[in-house]
Amino acid sequence: xxxxxxxxxxxxxxxxxxxxxxxxxxxxxxxxxxxxxxxxxxxxxxxxxxxxxxxxxxxxxxxxxxxxxxxxxxxxxxxxxxxxxxxxxxxxxxxxxxxxxxxxxxxxxxxxxxxxxxxxxxxxxxxxxxxxxxxxxxxxxxxxxxxxxxxxxxxxxxxxxxxxxxxxxxxxxxxxxxxxxxxxxxxxxxxxxxxxxxxxxxxxxxxxxxxxxxxxxxxxxxxxxxxxxxxxxxxxxxxx
Length: 240
What we know:
Elements: H1 4-19, E1 28-34, E2 37-42, E3 47-48, H2 52-67, E4 80-82, E5 85-87, H3 95-113, H4 125-135, E6 142-144, E7 153-156, E8 161-163, E9 169-171, H5 174-180, H6 188-197, H7 204-223, H8 228-239
Antiparallel strand pairs: 1-2, 3-7, 4-5, 6-9, 7-8
Helix pairs in contact: 2-6, 3-4, 3-7, 5-7, 7-8
Keywords: Kinase, Transferase
Organism: Croceitalea dokdonensis DOKDO 023
Family: Belongs to the fructosamine kinase family.
């Protein structure tokens, strides 16, 4: 039963992505419980190993998703999960405030509470806001997958890219790109195709580090201190 809220949040995220009509999403067939166990049953997609052309299509489709105009503040109508951790999506009109208050600070506090970070290693809210304000451009909300690593997409046997297991919200499109690059990247064809639709902006490398910080903190909180060095490196470089 503990998994049911996660499955329901996933179902809602898949529905929102499907409604965008920008990229394929497996149909959700059932989300319920049976004998005190939760389950989520989706359409079966026969998958194949992605080749460079598949990555190109994935980049094109993701860029279309991100390029759609959104009439929304930053955040989402409900909170959801990143992995098994809660992800707060309280709405903000300002991207920096959203990212600091709803992404970085909750994960930093969780790490301190679990003694995975020392309080002296954590920047103040004011410092986080100041640095992010300096490095973030004027941002328009895009609908994000929210957890786009290599395990959360698949390529069908017909070469169609699908997204699965989202942690959706409205945010800066570069967040999804930062996650794709965190553990090896998706290949040059993916990024070239993406940026043909959504051009790369100055300062993307620095923002990539700050956006990856969120996911590294999630990994620190989920999997332990093997991720601490990567976390403290970014904290020291940008906020030290």
